[in-house]
Amino acid sequence: MAERFDVAVVGGGPAGQAAALRLAEWGASVAVVDEQPRPGGQILRQPPTAFAVRGWMAGRSYAELRSQLERFGADPDIAWRGGRSVLGIARQPDSGGEPGFAVTLSSAEGVDRIAARRLLIATGCQDLAVPLPGWTLPGVYAAGGLQAFLKSQRIIPGERVVLAGTHPLQLVIAAQIVEAGGAVEAVLFAQPRAGMIAAMASAPTIALRHAGNMLIAAAAMRTLLRHRVPVHFGTLVERIVGEDRVEALVAGGRRWACDTVGLCFGFVPQSALPRMIGAEMRDAGAAGGWAALHDRWMRSTVPGLFVAGETTGVAGAPAAMAAGEIAGVGIAHDLGMIDEAAAERHAAAARARREGHLRFARLLDRLSDPRPWFPALDADTLVCRCEDVPLSSIVPLVDARSANAVKLATRCGMGACQGRNCEPTLLRLLGNPDDPGFASRFPARPATIADLAYVAARTTN
Ligand SMILES: Cc1cc2nc3c(=O)[nH]c(=O)nc-3n(C[C@H](O)[C@H](O)[C@H](O)COP(=O)(O)OP(=O)(O)OC[C@H]3O[C@@H](n4cnc5c(N)ncnc54)[C@H](O)[C@@H]3O)c2cc1C
Fold it and tell me: pLDDT per residue over 403-415, tens digit each?
């Protein structure tokens, strides 16, 4: 028998926490499901409980997020369901036609289901995977992956790290690595510094209003300077070389010896679940990917399904928190727990905050736009690394102009990541602005054969 809740939230990051806290205030029964064992999301990815880490995620920029995380952890009315991956979601309206949902979860204990009257998807974003010659050598990471090791496992996964890409978050990650005692050989931006300054100068008011974000980047630069880490602009990564693992990165015509590379070209929303249930999506912007459409209450186009945080577009943690709060208020109103006037009152401040953060996010998108800087691929560069599909298998099919057609012909996108990594590259190669991308299917996350057999048996019985 499935556990039943008023609201199920998928994602225990800043957006999911903010929504759950709001809903619990009005007496809703709320379950928050996350594949991570502990809440926090990407930005506050927590170490295991057995680790005693002094000064974890210290600093003013994390203070508000940490305070929300503490309130979330201490709220007895929120049912935390960590260590569970959501494999699928389905509509399950009640006999009166009121919306309802079934959420299929997988954990070490097997498959489980929860039922809820409303569902909030707040699954965040992931690094944009950028193929280039050599990118599948051991020692190549998405920059966010390097950071995840640092934040949650306290591991620096290499002796000599080079970060390369277009997104300023690589400055912060490089600074975190050197502060943790690691060695960063260089941070390489593909775009020229002048272009980044021009983007900032085109929106001086927004840049000034969000001076806090600029200060974070400036502090990271100071740390890198202190540790003599060179930061180069106009230095496009061309290839990564090595026999059995990374030995060097070639960028700007020069060879940078290293054993670890972090690629940082931006982030794309995690969109599998809203797409699976038929929510309308939009092009997520410069880095690619799909963002869920929503109204001013964060309602998606599927009745009863709400979306918040980076599932709706990548805009940073404070914007995710604000969106989560609006969704919490919106759901409470939808369930009849508060009236419209109260809902408007409760959402007003969060809406204003979110608008400001979205303006800054658009500026950040402009100055980190990866599109002019994607490295050239060789014929044998793998586009889909799960199913070993090289560029040469895709080129003869580009006239099909459909991601699903290429998937059927080559298995590109059929592997363990279910296309999360190769889809943006494939869509770029196909160049068809009307292509909706891969059809998103159950399971959204890797599942065991036993889990699949269990689900199949329950579906057919
Ligand atoms: C690797 C990485 C590192 C980042 N580091 C920083 C940083 O240092 N500074 C910064 O300002 N921003 C960073 N960001 C951006 C940051 O993630 C966001 O701004 C913020 O965390 C977004 O909050 P959110 O609640 O929307 O999503 P998230 O914080 O990403 O939370 C989403 C949660 O959903 C869970 N989830 C996703 N899919 C499923 C599923 N199918 N089943 C169960 N659970 C699921 C995830 O485990 C995650 O905990 C990073 C992003 C990434 C991807």
Answer: 999 999 999 999 9
